[in-house]
Design brief:
By secondary structure, the chain is α+β, with helices and mostly antiparallel strands. The protein is built from eight helices and twelve strands. It has a domain of 119 residues.
């Protein structure tokens, strides 16, 4: 029986994507509600409460967004040379000659311990099993877990059709490898470390960070000392309406948001050599954007009402 050039065994994704999407939407709604009320509240306990609510609701969104992206991109591929596990920016390409055995987790005499922090669509992490040693989970659910043992560790994956994957692996090992494959392990942190080694990236990242921190600190000092600021101008550049000074807090928050999005977007493009110039452009733009927000605050507080 011939084996296809590439066997494709994706994990279950629907329930995980629904849960992640619903959670992101709920947190985004709470964060938007907090920022909206923050712009209308006077300096005091309610102002701090709205600020904390908005920030705490927004903080997990990038993390959950990456988890959703990783699940959407997740896949398991096998051919006659290697088995590839893809989970977002995490890539593990295992030569078939390095695989000692592959079997369902239900075959273990002792139950497999699952990661402590897991949700549908993200069963990720490592646990130690008394019989097989260290197990790294790269799975979307706990129902169809397959264990793949190598000399270094055991991987736990969850294809929708585990039996077909095991059968394809058995046929591939019988047919033998067409060409020697090299093991490949890529972690998301590797991309950050690689980008950090670039002097330009370090300078741009740190410049943007200090600019945004300085903007937040400056606005925090300005708000109690101002009562009203202009937030609208006519065609001649003259102020035509005023607003509470607490609305100034929106500028550093928007600047910080754009800075974070810029860093993440740049890392996405940095993965490919041909697109690295685009990554630098995105990072430099996020830093320039922080400078423009600083100039905007300066313009607002120095404009006579």
């Amino acid at each position: 029986m011939n084996i296809p050039k590439v066997g494709h065994f994706p994990p279950a994704k629907r329930s995980g994507l629904i849960i992640h999407g619903t959670t992101i939407l709920a947190l985004a709604t709470v964060s938007a509600w907090g920022f909206w009320n923050l712009s209308r509240a006077e300096v005091g306990p309610m102002f701090v409460s709205y600020l904390l609510a908005a920030l705490f609701a927004f903080a997990p969104i990038p993390f959950l967004g990456y988890r959703a992206y990783a699940l959407q991109r997740a896949d398991y591929y096998i051919d006659r040379d290697s088995l590839a596990v893809i989970w977002g920016l995490r890539v593990e390409d295992i030569p078939l000659t390095d695989i000692e055995w592959m079997r369902p987790a239900s075959d273990l005499t002792r139950p497999l311990l699952l990661p402590r922090f897991r949700v549908p669509g993200a069963v990720l992490g490592t646990r130690r099993h008394p019989d097989v040693g260290l197990v790294e989970f790269v799975a979307s659910d706990t129902k169809n877990i397959i264990l793949i043992a190598t000399s270094k560790r055991v991987f736990a994956i969850s294809p929708q059709n585990p039996a077909a994957l095991v059968q394809t692996f058995a046929r591939a090992t019988e047919l033998g490898s067409l060409s020697p494959a090299q093991p490949v392990s890529v972690y998301p942190s590797f991309i950050i470390t690689q980008a950090w080694e670039s002097p330009v990236a370090r300078f741009v990242w740190m410049s943007g960070l200090f600019l945004n921190l300085g903007l937040i600190l400056w606005v925090g000092i300005l708000i109690p000392s101002l009562s009203q600021i202009p937030f609208g101008f006519n065609a001649l550049g003259e102020p035509n309406e005023t607003a509470s000074s607490t609305q100034l807090i929106l500028l550093p928050l928007v600047s910080a948001f754009m800075y974070v999005i810029g860093i993440i977007s740049g890392l996405y493009f940095y993965r490919w050599d041909r697109q690295r110039p685009l990554a630098y452009i995105v990072w430099i733009s996020s830093t320039v954007c922080a400078i423009l927000f600083l100039m905007a605050v300066l313009f607002l507080v120095t404009t006579p009402i």
